[in-house]
Amino acid sequence: xxxxxxxxxxxxxxxxxxxxxxxxxxxxxxxxxxxxxxxxxxxxxxxxxxxxxxxxxxxxxxxxxxxxxxxxxxxxxxxxxxxxxxxxxxxxxxxxxxxxxxxxxxxxxxxxxxxxxxxxxxxxxxxxxxxxxxxxxxxxxxxxxxxxxxxxxxxxxxxxxxxxxxxxxxxxxxxxxxxxxxxxxxxxxxxxxxxxxxx
Length: 199
What we know:
The chain has helices at 15-28, 68-77, 94-107, 126-134, 183-189, and strands at 4-9, 33-38, 48-50, 56-58, 60-62, 83-86, 111-116, 137-140, 153-157, 163-164, 178-181. It has a domain at 4-141: Rossmann fold (3-Layer(aba) Sandwich), CATH 3.40.50.300. Helix 2 runs parallel beside helix 3. Helix content is 27%, strand content 23%. It is found in: Cytoplasm.
């Protein structure tokens, strides 16, 4: 039975690696997959899903105006698809998450979404909020803070390494811009811990 999955984490947890490995596993067994990524995140090149460990794959793209139900319907006319994989799922709109849910229910194709849960201010992305509400299954892709605890938050830094507390929710960047932290160290970085607890 087809399901809508949400694989979420912080930055640099290996979401794209997991996505590309899962797609490879299907294709290795002769099954077709369909890959999508956010149009404006072109760090690895236009229409490319890339991992920090050096693997990549071509993908179609989506923007905020893309009707994903129609796009999946069109792709399925061209031939069978065993599974749909979506990278940078935090950039989906709420409407697009509903479109994916309808594709799972009506077109009977599994959809696996991979994305960030929260932004650098600890707020849910709209796409992530909708996926948390509508997904049939959710799985956390874990990474660790510098202290060894599980990282659940992320800070944004400027070019000098100073932590930014304000700014647009979306700013494309990698290791040079974002650092994953546990909640306590995120609070410390954001100035939200009393000085007597910062030991």
